[in-house]
């Protein structure tokens, strides 16, 4: 299976959607950045903290911000642990890895917030550090942006980290699914078969149906598909159904029975058995594991009913 590049990943519509939703929900910016340690400062997008954007127009501010971003990337040695870093101006950033098949493919970066109320003395020190010799209008704008920066208490900051962690896992699964679903260098017959599976994943899918759709012999197709994907068609269909089920389980309004049939498993006992075999937990346990991270106030009682 081909590994998607960062340039391919960052163009996924889901990223722009989540960046916007994250900002609206938290008041804090989010950027999906390359996994490598930066050689120059990386902007955090159009919604970047105004103080950080202004400060970075000075050589000292830009260099200090680059150092913070590099430190955040270097600190992501443990895949499961978000990395918090503090900058010269007293702001806090947080970084979380996105990993696919054991590889660090992108970094979620957020923060640019205060953890305590800033003071005039704090700002004076910042201004001296980055260069107090600039004109008064610029300094006034910098001051306003500095004191307009959100102050986030420990509880809210922990919620921000949890949301980042949830999105990192979701994005990891999404990327893995996309890379798994289609490969740019695979035979046309395999790509056609995969599209057929995705379009009919909630229906019974027999090898004969796929072979007829692709238009090659049964023996040739089985050999070709196994070589290209490393699995049989049946294994691939199961994997696609599991991926769809995981996505649906994130919606607390859906019953397990509804998810079972919408994912093409046909019966709740079979769904439970296959899901646990491949994930190590039952569908209800998987859904429950999402609940603390997503901050659900509580799903409707029938949502977990089988």
How would you summarize what this structure contains?
By secondary structure, the protein is α+β, with helices and mostly antiparallel strands. 56% of the residues lie in helices and 10% in strands.
Instruction: Enumerate the spans where pLDDT stays under 50 for 5 or more consecutive residues.
Output: 292-306
Write the element-wise H/E pattern from the N-terminal end onward.
Answer: HHEHHEEEHHHHHHHHHH
Q: Structural class of the secondary elements?
A: alpha+beta
Helix % is: 55-70%
State Rg: 24 Å
Strand content: 5-15%
Q: Care to count the β-strands?
A: 4
What is the count of helical runs? 14
Overall 3D shape: elongated
Number of domains: 2
- Order of strands across the main sheet: 1-4-3-2
Main sheet, how many strands, which sense, barrel?
4 strands, antiparallel
